[in-house]
Design a protein that fits this description.
Layout (H helix, E strand, L loop, with lengths): L1 H4 L2 E6 L2 E6 L5 H8 L7 E4 L5 E2 L16 E5 L19 E4 L8 E8 L11 E5 L5 H12 L5 E5 L14 H5 L5 E5 L3 H56 L1 H46 L12 E4 L4 E4 L1 H10 L15 E4 L3 H9 L1
Parallel strand pairs: 1-5
Antiparallel strand pairs: 1-2, 3-4, 3-5, 6-7, 6-10, 7-8, 9-10, 11-12, 11-13
């Protein structure tokens, strides 16, 4: 008790600020000073964002920071009309803060617009016990607000907090600076989309303004540099033409001579290409003439010609097989081809050349 008597705190709400001792830190006195209803009254540490709730009209001063600054939240006494939970745009979001008094965490739910700062509207306390899941928290909110509307517990970015072993521990809900909200499940997608769209629009506008200034600076710098560069080029060109006119003339003459030589080389190369094409054509035609008409390959040793039509029939082995199976020429269909075959010799170098290609 002696420790708590030495503590003092700075309380503030809107523009009103007040230094108060721990003995005066009760709901009735704070309600009278800041004109808020005792029911739903709570305070939040400006530094740690930890939330504190009264226990039997007294706040847990032993857990509160000495000479610390605390924001006071609650329903104004002079308020005559509050938004309906079922129809008001402001009643679509419900934020939660954490406390550390006793074996349970006590939460305050209050209407909030698209994850922005809370407004002065009715507040309710939600007590969270050890091993209490998200489903039970939703049921507590429904019972306190007397509604069958389902809620989704989420963080300040609209990301859903699901039931898990971590969320069933009180320390999860007591974490400083953690902003927890209970949103109507039916309205959560619209609110999250609205928040993202507002943030995106602000980012886009800032980025557009920043880019516009950068572009204007770049254009101005480019214009100045271009003018300087063009003037320098003109001056250099005048000096070069005036001082090196003869060198330019010689260079042009050398270029013309080089061009003439290149033209002659191209003409010579064109002739060589034409010769190569002719040689290729001749080689291709000769290969087609010497090709065996049976196996379609170039003969390795012997070339057989038939006297009936004077054409190359093929290689020796293929011709012998053909004669044994047919009594007529396979090229001109003349009979008695056996007595009319001629073996050409002296073409071994030519055949070897074709075989290697």
């Amino acid at each position: 008790m002696a420790e708590s008597q030495n503590k003092s705190f700075i309380l503030h709400k809107d523009t009103k600020r007040l230094n108060i001792n721990d003995n005066d830190l009760n709901t009735q006195r704070i309600s009278a000073i800041f004109q808020v209803k005792p029911d739903g009254l709570y305070m939040e540490d400006d530094m740690s964002r930890e939330t504190f709730f009264p226990n039997q009209e007294m706040f847990p001063v032993n857990s509160m920071r000495d000479k610390g600054s605390f924001a006071v939240y609650g329903t104004p006494l002079m308020a005559t009309e509050f938004p309906s939970f079922g129809t008001s745009r402001l009643s679509s979001m419900w934020s939660a803060g954490s406390g550390q008094a006793g074996p349970a965490s006590s939460f305050t739910c209050r209407p909030q617009t698209a994850f922005q700062h809370p407004v002065d509207t009715p507040s309710v306390h939600v007590n969270i016990l050890e091993n209490m899941g998200v489903k039970e928290i939703n049921q507590s909110i429904q019972e306190i607000l007397n509604t069958e509307e389902t809620f989704t517990i989420c963080d300040s970015k609209g990301i859903e907090i699901t039931d898990s072993q971590e969320t069933r521990v009180l320390e999860f809900w007591r974490t400083p600076n953690r902003k927890i909200h209970a949103a109507k499940t039916s309205e959560l997608p619209r609110l999250v989309h609205k928040t993202k769209r507002k943030r995106s629009n602000v980012r886009d506008e800032n980025l557009e303004a920043e880019n516009r200034l950068k572009i204007e600076d770049l254009l101005e710098t480019l214009e100045v540099n271009t003018k300087i560069e063009v003037q320098n080029m003109r001056d250099n060109l005048k000096d070069t033409i005036g001082d090196q006119k003869e060198e330019i003339t010689d260079s042009i003459t050398q270029m013309k001579t080089c061009l003439a030589n290149t033209t002659r080389k191209l003409e010579s190369l064109d002739e060589r290409v034409s010769d190569v094409k002719n040689e290729t054509y001749v080689t291709s035609a000769l290969r087609e003439i010497l090709r065996c008409k049976v196996c379609t390959e170039i003969p390795e040793n012997t070339i057989i010609v038939v006297a009936c039509c004077g054409q190359v029939l093929g290689c020796g082995a293929c011709v012998q097989k053909c004669i044994s199976e047919n009594e007529f020429c396979i090229l001109c269909k003349n009979e008695s081809v056996v007595d009319r075959i001629v073996e050409l010799k002296g073409f071994q170098m030519v055949l070897d050349k074709f075989q290697s290609v």
